[in-house]
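Section 3.1: Structural characterization of target chains.
Under the original work plan, the team committed to producing a structural model for every single-chain target entering the pipeline before any wet-lab resources were allocated. The record below documents one such target. The sequence was received from the expression subgroup and is listed exactly as submitted; it comprises 244 residues.
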Amino acid sequence: SVLFDDTAVSDVVFGKDGLAEAMRPGAIHLSCSTISPPLADRLEEEHGRRGQHAVSAPLLGSAAMAAAGTLYLATSGPAQAIERLAAVFAALAQKTLVVGERPRHAVVAKLANNFLLFAVTEAIGEALALAEKSGLPRAAMMDLMWETDFGKRIFAVYGRKVLDRAFEPATAPARLAMKDLDLALAQGAASGASMAAAGLLRERLAETIARGWGELEFAAVSLLTDAESGLPVPHGRLSTKGSR
């Protein structure tokens, strides 16, 4: 099923003459919709109660990619059910990544991926606005990001640091990032460019430095999110001095 939201999926699956009642034991419901984790849990429970299987595989990509069969899929569910769907995945996507054993895992992956897309898009917009308001053609700024593999470097270098929580030795410490961000914000104010996300990032960097992490790589701002989320934060040199 590929449906708009939780309501549509619930109606089709659990409504009168819905999928759950129509499917035979052993059948697989492949849900490619972007839905909530609680609904994914319900699909898992209700299909399982009937001897059926629920597999999540939210679509990653555009309509044009779907038409060309070049989507990406993040899938999760019972391993044997995923194996049975190999031919379907091959027809739908150029690559399928198994991210977990429960249907909710792929749903969470899609939500996190979409958040990243939205956040990066906002950041690109602010960068282009700063450039244009300061007299630099926005196309030239975009060319700079494109030609220097900006996105690839972000994930390959800084994404890995965040993943491994490896922020030493620092080549660009948080205190240096704060200086550069302040310069960008000052220019934004002078030129009249709106930089809401940059302002929020400054608050996060300031808190990171206040906790004693100013000499770590600027990507250590992610430690603040870890700490606030109750996730493990490395000890040793990573003090919590100044935390509130």
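Strands lie at 28-31, 53-56, 59-60, 71-76, 93-100.
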